[in-house]
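Example 3.2
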Amino acid sequence: MALHHLYLIIHLLSATIWTGGHLILAIGVLPKALKYRDFKYIYQFEKPYSAIGMPSLLFLVITGVLMAYDFGIKTGVWFSFATPMETVVSLKLICLLSTVCFAISANMRLIPKLKKGDMSKLNEMAVHIICVTLLGVIMVILGSFIRYGGFML
């Protein structure tokens, strides 16, 4: 159980960095970028944040899977929604996969155009930022249900 507690501490610190960083981006940086119609505000935040944000996301995935296994939720029952704990894990995985889709979309379609000065994609980037931020907050909330044994839909 001591190892599980270590996973939890790493998971919580990583969630703080990941979700906190996105809250700062969405609430503090994005409004300025939209007001001045300039991607540089987002880019100036994202560039240094990525150095700690991406490793945090990786630690979240690794520790999340390890803790799920500790709770007996193996890959074979993911997305079965059969028990309250499986439901929480499955919903968090859906949020993670959605986050990955937004990241791929932003990196493949939006950021290259925005870096070239095409601000017509700025509003779409704002939607991506807000969605990823909300997904992060939802994952934090879902994680809090683990303490109560999960929940059923």
